[in-house]
Amino acid sequence: MKNTLPTHHWICRRYLHPDHAEKWIHTLPPAHQLKITYTHSPPTPRARVDFYAPSYRAAYAFKKKHGGRILRLSSLAWSPNPAPTDPPLRATRRLAICSTPQQLHHWQRKLNPSQLILITHSLAFGTGHHPTTALCLRALQTIATRQRKSPSQPPPAPCIDIGTGSGILAIAAARLGFPDVHALDHDTTALRIARYHARINHTTIRFIHADITRYPLPPASYSLIIANLYSALLTVAAPRILQALAPKGYLILSGIRTEDENEIRHAFASVPFIHRSQKENWLCLIAQAAF
User: Fold this and answer.
1) In a 3-state reduction of DSSP, which class is residue 49?
2) 76 three-state secondary structure
3) How far is the C-alpha of 187 from the C-alpha of 166, rounded, in Å?
4) Which terminus in the chain has less CB density within 10 A, N or C?
5) Taking Cα atoms as reference points, which of 127, 85, 118, 77 lies closest to residue 100?
6) CA distances, 167 to each of 22, 187, 249 (Å)
7) Cβ atoms within 10 Å, residue 265
8) Strands 205-209 and 222-228, how do they pair?
9) What confidence tens digit (pLDDT) does each residue in 95-130 have?
10) pTM for this structure?
11) How far is Cα 139 from Cα 92, in angstroms, rounded to an integer?
12) What percent of the chain has pLDDT over 70?
């Protein structure tokens, strides 16, 4: 089947100190599609922040307001592809991420194929390398293990990945045995890429094109909600997310900087938190509805 990923995209690129970069992106509206790449160029580390724009005009408007330089970048130049024999990214004990079909084909003969996920280097968040994605994948593994140890529970309600990006977390949920997986994103490019990844990974996912701050999620309808978003967006969306959580349902929250933890705990105070994990200065919190 033909690869429908976009071949080119306009970007506006800035280089900042990593701490400044992470603080700066919190000042931007949630709709901005950004990728942060950390480099370690002596004498000081740098973070490259790329804003992906749908047109040159949009990239120019971003540059005029925020600075940087405009580039036209092929999706193939996102980052170097690994050799087929390079080990996949081991996300959890049961999941590994491949970046190319050739790498997937090679490791399917050495690992359990059901444990492998193919996520190409594309113009959407989520290759498994960012700390928040890695933390969410481990949280999914933790919840899947809990549910396997309680086989007497009734079949869970659907689960939803809010802000799906590349689709990696929704696909991982399907791989780990969660039935009826939904994925929501407001960005059409992200949804196109997520659908592509769902197809090449042979997973069935219901995609929803919507803004979580406006979309009315059905009340008490999801047994698992994954929300890997920035803290500001999590805070705004908290009432909609909480009302959609089914009794005894699990909630995975990430995209949270350590200094924002109290704000997020306050916004989601109606559900008890049962697990906290941290990687670098990013957090992932797991909560479970009491009833």
Assistant:
1) strand
2) helix
3) 11
4) C
5) 118
6) 23, 12, 21
7) 15
8) unpaired
9) 999 988 898 989 998 888 888 999 886 555 566 778
10) 0.75
11) 9
12) 79
Packing angle between helix 168-175 and helix 131-148, nearest 10 degrees? 20
Residue 126, CA distances (Å) to 163, 221, 241 in order: 10, 25, 21
Alpha carbon distance 236, 90 (integer Å): 33
Question: In terms of C-beta density within 10 A (0-12 exposed, 13-18 middle, 19 or more buried), how is residue 60 classed?
Answer: middle
Tokens at 144, concatenated:
């899947």
Of 279, 3, 283, which is closest to residue 123 (Cα–Cα)?
3
For residue range 261-278, list pLDDT tens digits in order. 999 999 999 999 999 999
Task: For the chain, give the mean pLDDT.
Answer: 83
Average of per-residue pLDDT across 77-98: 79
43 upstream amide cis, omega within 30 of 0: yes
Q: Spell out the residues 6+ positions from residue 82 whose beta carbon is closer than 8 angstroms to its own.
A: 99, 100, 103
Helix H or strand E segment including 207: strand 205-209
CA-nearest of 50, 41, 116, 46 to 77 is: 50
One DSSP character per residue, 216-242 reads: -PPTT-EEEEEEE--HHHHHHHHHHHH
**Residue 264 φ then ψ, to 5°:** -70, -40
**Distance of CA 24 to CAs 29, 62, 95, 243, Å?**
11, 14, 32, 31
Residue 89's beta-bridge partner residues?
A: 97
> What's the CA gap between 278 and 266, in Å, rounded?
19
